[in-house]
Design goal:
The complex is a heterodimer of chains A (293) and B (849). Helices cover 70% and strands 4% of the residues of chain A. With 293 residues, chain A is mainly alpha-helical. The two termini of chain A are 53 Å apart. The longest helix of chain B has 20 residues. Classes of the chains: A mainly alpha (293), B alpha+beta (849). Flavin-adenine dinucleotide (FAD) binds next to helix 1, helix 2 and helix 7 of chain B.
């Protein structure tokens, strides 16, 4: 299996981070007694410094990612270390605070820290799980190739329905026109399907109805097959149905892969700004501790 | 019948070379009218310099090579296409040159000591001397149907924006046809006619673009496949369509006719060679790349008929202009020394002899049999483009000479010519594993070749011998270290100069070829055999050439020879029990295959298929036995390798998915790669940072197209340079701007003239022609205030004035050779999906996935 950010160098940084946790545990336990321990003891200062250094270094990943001439090791190694050392912060920061939380700037910083870390967990999950899923959905095609396939299916469909009656033409072509795949980031994230199609009701009125997952369209065409009014119609309808089902598969796969791609991206929009907020909160925390204690 | 017009000199072709020749002829006519000084300049097109007229509008024309001075009655320095053409037109008029436009020469025949020159649409003329300067573009292949002489037909397209609201038919299926059709479709109705069922000759980028455009109803472009033109006809002005012409085509499903305004035929060109051979001009060899045979006065094998410019194999404007000037002087009996002889003098200044240029030339030619085979023209070119290496044993002399070199360098300004290099004896000339591909000739002294690891000596070579042929011919890294033994003088010739020489001189080509075979036999089969014995064996081997996909042998055949890959790559595969083709081995140049049949199993068990253009040395059973009988020192290793290969083959057989992935790599042309970017789709999160990193480290223009490229089994080969063993892109680069670094990277230097040859020669679509991107504000300005842009290439960036003036240049991946930590695309990839892999690691890479 391909080496991912967790298995990088046989999970080298996992052991580093476990060691770190162990050391902070001993520091924490070396305080006078559980009751007497808090961020203000010498041990608390040591742990606090350690946690701060870690947070600053974790945030520096954003800088490393953009320093393309950097000689400070590959981003791959940074990310693996980032993930493990970042996770260890839950423990290190907890020991530093000695589990004393309240409603104040100090606890707020801790909350932000947890948010960043948990969004990070999601990121790791997405980065490891989704790429393979996306490839499986695309069947080895590139994005452009999928769009080309979609286009050529459309042409075949048009060529087929041209020989059918106008009501059917109208419905199928409107459904193709109004197929929604991408949309806004939120739409993509929720895999929202805004596909519509026009349907003749009562012989005269044309309604625009939902065509979610292209199923209504397919059902519409399927319903027509046993009700054909020309001898050649069933055959045409059958091949139309076949094309539409293939197109449905493609459209739905595209929608899901867009959703997965959006998920792989969107968590960073939480992770990164909150980590900036965390840095600010942390600064206030440190300054207030030194000046107002 | 009126008398046939006669001229002393007829110059044919008014490109830079022909213009310069006519300019000098006019000068002679002006200064002394006594003897016959008459001349005429015949140009097939209605304007001068057709090749340059056809450059893209506004192209910045470069004056390479920088070290060469211009000698011509016409002016030329780097400038825009328009200003250069304007200046030449002005010189033409102010000197009232005797030029005839629209005078395409169709035939030149020797007749009564003169030449009879037939001109299309005019009466023939005669001339005592002919200077052929028709360039190497060849003549466009004509449509060859009734009506193809009508003015609606054109063979080039300089500026698509000149045509609006026309109906235009583009005929052809190559890149230029597609590019023209796409450009025209912006504001015209365009039909593209392809004789075949698909656009197989086109590059993938163009292919995608044309298919997309043809399917897009918003683009007024339609494709006709399997279609030929049958007839073109002028229409009456009264015709209802309002169009001036009508075209009749046959679409395979039947005839069709419609009114049109214009036809652009892009059918390739008829090579100039056919035209020349028709006149009896000899070529150096059958090789399509070879040039006409000429002496140092540019006279061809037909006395009185001279060839200059790109037709003669000199691909740059300045070279052609200098030759035009000189050739007319020669014809008039002025044996002036060419501009290049000054350069020779410079080259020779640091040699330890007090001799004149002519004496040194003579000395060189006497000492080295190979140089003796060349005429003065070839010799001069060789020396000028080569570097002299002078090695000294004594520290004192070395110090003296380096001092002298420094002072010479200090007062000669500007010249970028490869100058003489002073070295210590014993200092490495190249190291084993270096990717350099230059070729060395020993003028004086001795060279020792040794293996890097063991220090074991392979050979000592002396005066007149040469080395480095393996890097030159196979594109593989050097297979040993080389250093001078004592005082020594060497000539180091770049790959391109050497290839050109080999193409135009069979003697040189055969000599190098033989040595290559001999050394391959020595390295692979009989390391301790005497040189003479190996030479005999070398003569008895054969070189076989294969194209991509050709089968070298098949299962079931009796094997009676082994092969050494000389260039390219070979893939061994077989059909497994599931009826799937499984790759079980891959051999790059320098490796041996097929030897199993000579050592044990007599029957071939595999398909051996060439991957890319491949040359192999065939060693027969008898030759092999003879060699190993007299020298058993190599057999042990061969046997060991065979056993290892059996193990590897069976391992691969047990992992069919690896074998199939390997087949995918080979189908992608990775067999001829030295370093390829592979993306593991299991890991890629499509963050595009690889592309962004590429742009950020390369002046804002990415050389990597991540989304493009083929995929198989979650492996993705994006469009990015593979640093081919024998880079196709180098082939026709006029200023020789593409090089390979000792560490293997193929890169383009600043002398690129933007001609686009490399872009079309690279089979992997890796090279882009791009303007320089403008500088961006710092990234924090974007992060904080949204001012400027994110990291990475700015889509559709607008070049600034300076970049526009410089014009588009070729850009490609240089594997980040200037960055210590290696390719930025790889080191920035957050998940480790992007990797650059060398062929010897393909297997491990695929197995470990
Ligand atoms: C896109 C591109 C960009 C380039 N950029 C540069 C650059 O920046 N700097 C540089 O130094 N070089 C450049 N080159 C190379 C340069 O154009 C050529 O080296 C140069 O034009 C060769 O000059 P020539 O006189 O030998 O032939 P050409 O310039 O090819 O001229 C030949 C002339 O002969 C005419 N002719 C052909 N056949 C006949 C016939 N049968 N009868 C009568 N006339 C005939 C043609 O119409 C033409 O006008 C570039 C080439 C290309 C294709
Ligand atoms: C306080 C703790 C953390 C801070 C301050 C922090 C900060 C950052 C920053 C600044 C980036 C760069 C984002 C960008 O520029 O695009 C980043 C990326 C990332 N972080 Fe964190 N992080 C922390 C903890 C974690 C944890 C605990 C994990 C996982 C368990 C994690 C996983 C990641 C991942 C996977 C990336 C993406 C890398 C990439 O796409 O290039 N982070 N983090
Ligand atoms: S190796 Fe460097 S130049 Fe090549 S694609 Fe990667 S980043 Fe670009
Ligand atoms: S640019 Fe193309 S031809 Fe040149 S080395 Fe790279 S892949 Fe090979």
């Amino acid at each position: 299996m391909s080496e991912n950010m967790l298995s990088y160098r046989k999970s080298y940084y996992l052991y580093i981070s476990l060691t770190l946790i162990l050391i902070s545990y001993f520091i924490y336990r070396s305080q006078a007694g559980i009751e007497g321990s808090n961020g203000g003891t010498p041990q608390g200062y040591i742990l606090g410094t350690l946690a701060t250094v870690l947070v600053v270094w974790l945030a520096l990943l954003g800088v490393r990612k953009r320093s393309f001439q950097s000689r400070l090791g590959s981003v791959k190694a940074w990310v693996s270390a980032h993930v493990y050392l970042g996770s260890s912060l839950i423990v290190v920061a907890s020991f530093h605070s000695a589990f004393q939380l309240g409603i104040n700037i100090h606890s707020f910083a801790f909350l932000l820290l947890l948010l960043v870390i948990f969004s990070g967990f999601y990121g790791v999950f997405a980065y490891i799980r989704y790429p393979a899923k996306i490839v499986a959905l695309s069947n080895g095609r590139s994005g452009e190739e999928s769009l080309a396939l979609l286009n050529s299916l459309k042409e075949e469909i048009v060529a087929t329905y041209k020989e059918l009656d106008s009501e059917l033409q109208m419905t199928v072509s409107s459904a193709i026109e109004r197929t929604g795949i991408a949309g806004s980031t939120l739409d993509m994230l929720l895999a929202r399907d805004k596909s519509m199609m026009c349907l003749t009701v009562f012989g005269t009125r044309v309604d625009v109805v939902s065509n979610r997952a292209q199923q209504p369209l397919i059902d519409f065409v399927a319903k027509r097959i046993p009700r054909g009014n020309r001898a050649t119609e069933p055959e045409l309808l059958l091949s139309l149905l076949n094309l539409l089902t293939r197109r449905q598969q493609l459209v739905e796969n595209l929608r899901v892969s867009l959703q997965l791609k959006a998920r792989m991206r969107v968590w960073l929009f939480i992770h990164t700004p909150i980590s900036v907020a965390l840095l600010v909160a942390l600064t206030i925390h440190v300054v207030s501790v030194f000046f107002y204690w | 019948m009126s008398q046939v017009e006669h001229f002393h000199i007829a110059v044919i072709g008014a490109g830079p070379a022909g213009l310069s020749a006519a300019g000098r002829a006019a000068w002679y006519q002006k200064i002394d009218g006594e003897a016959d000084r008459s001349y005429v300049l015949l140009e097939g097109a209605p304007t001068i310099a057709n090749t340059i007229v056809n450059y893209q509008k506004g192209k910045y024309v470069m004056a390479e090579p920088g070290y060469l001075d211009l000698r011509s009655d016409f002016r030329f320095s780097a400038n825009s296409r328009e200003s250069i053409l304007e200046s030449w037109q002005a010189t033409l008029e102010s000197n009232s040159l005797n030029i005839r436009f629209d005078s395409k020469v169709t035939e030149i025949k020797p007749e009564d000591g003169n030449f009879r020159i037939c001109i299309q649409g005019a009466s023939p003329i005669t001339a005592s001397f002919v200077v052929l300067a028709i360039g190497s573009e060849g003549n466009p292949r004509r449509l060859g149907v009734p009506g193809d002489d009508l003015p609606l037909l054109q063979y080039t397209l300089a500026d698509a924006s000149m045509y609006q609201n026309e109906t235009i038919v583009v005929v052809g299926a190559g890149d230029s046809a597609i590019e023209n059709a796409l450009a025209l479709s912006a504001s015209n109705q365009v039909y593209i006619l392809n004789r075949r069922g698909e656009f197989s000759r086109a590059k993938t980028g163009n292919l995608d673009a044309i298919l997309k455009a043809a399917n897009d109803e918003g683009v007024s472009l339609d494709c006709y496949y399997n279609t030929v033109v049958e007839k073109v006809q002028a229409l009456d002005a009264a015709e209802s369509s309002g169009k001036p012409y009508k075209i009749e085509i046959n679409t395979g499903d039947g005839q069709k006719a419609f009114p049109i305004d214009r036809i652009i035929a892009r059918l390739g060109s008829v090579p100039a060679r056919d035209f020349l051979e028709g006149m009896g001009i000899e070529f150096a060899s059958d090789n399509i790349r070879s040039n006409p045979v000429m002496n140092e006065r540019y006279e061809s094998s037909v006395p009185g008929l001279y060839i200059i410019g790109s037709l003669a194999g000199y691909p740059l404007i300045k070279q052609g202009m200098n030759q035009g000037h000189d050739v007319v002087s020669f014809i008039h009996g002025d044996m002036i020394a060419p501009v290049e002889s000054k350069l020779l003098e410079k080259q020779f200044r640091l040699l330890p002899f007090a001799l004149s240029v002519d004496q040194v030339t003579q000395l060189f030619q006497q000492r080295t049999p190979m140089l003796n085979e060349m005429n003065l023209l070839q010799f001069r070119e060789l020396i000028i483009e080569s570097q002299l290496l002078v090695c000294y044993q004594s520290e004192e002399v070395y110090q003296n000479e380096t001092g002298r070199a420094a002072s010479i360098a200090a007062d000669s300004t500007g010249s970028s010519l490869a100058s003489t290099r002073i070295m210590h004896a014993g200092e490495f000339i190249f190291r084993q594993g270096d990717f350099s591909s230059s070729f060395f000739t020993i003028i004086e002294g001795e060279i020792k070749l040794t293996l890097k690891q063991s220090g074991q000596q392979i050979a000592v070579l002396g005066r007149g011998q040469f080395f480095g042929e393996s890097g030159l011919l196979s594109g593989q890294p050097r297979n040993c270290d080389a250093a001078a033994v004592g005082d020594c003088i060497l000539l180091e010739t770049p790959r391109r100069t050497m290839l050109k020489l080999m193409n135009s001189n069979d003697g040189v080509a055969d000599g190098i070829d033989l040595i290559f075979r001999v050394r391959a036999l020595q390295a692979k089969i009989a390391p301790k055999s005497a040189f003479d014995e190996l030479t005999v064996a070398g003569f008895n081997t054969k070189i076989l050439r294969f194209r991509a996909g050709d089968t070298i042998y098949k299962p079931g055949e009796t094997g009676n020879c082994l092969y050494i890959v000389r260039s390219g790559a070979v893939v061994l595969s077989h059909i497994n029990h599931e009826n799937k083709n499984i790759v079980v081995g891959q051999f790059q140049s320098g490796s041996v295959f097929g030897e199993m049949a000579l050592m044990g199993d007599l029957i071939r068990r595999h398909y051996a298929v060439a991957s890319g253009l491949t040359e192999v040395i065939e060693v027969t059973q008898e030759e092999f036995s003879r060699l190993v009988r007299s020298d058993t020192s190599g057999i042990e290793k061969l046997q060991r390798d065979v056993s290892a290969k059996y193990v590897q083959q069976n391992t691969l057989d047990a992992q069919p998915e690896v074998g199939q992935a390997m087949q995918f790599f080979m189908d992608q042309g990775l067999g001829e790669a030295t370093n390829a970017l592979i993306i593991d789709e299991n890991l890629c999160v499509s963050c595009d940072y690889c592309e962004k990193a590429c742009a950020e480290t390369h002046n804002g223009v990415s050389r990597l197209n991540r989304k493009a490229g083929d995929r198989y089994a979650k492996l993705h080969v994006p469009v990015s340079c593979r640093h081919c063993q024998q880079p196709h892109c180098m082939k026709d680069c006029p200023p020789d701007a593409i090089h390979r670094a000792a560490s293997g990277e193929v890169f383009i230097d600043s002398t690129c003239i933007g001609c686009g040859n490399c872009e079309s020669n690279c089979p992997y679509d890796v090279i882009r022609m791009e303007y320089e991107a403008p500088d961006k504000p710092p990234i924090w300005a974007w992060l904080l205030f949204g001012y400027g842009a994110d990291v990475g290439e700015v889509k559709d960036f607008q070049p600034d004035v300076e970049a526009l003036a410089k014009g588009k240049k070729a850009v490609k991946c240089d594997a980040c050779m200037s960055i210590k930590t290696g390719p930025a695309c790889v080191s920035v990839c957050p998940t480790g999906a992007a990797n650059r892999i060398t062929p010897d690691n393909y297997l491990t890479y695929l197995q470990e996935r």
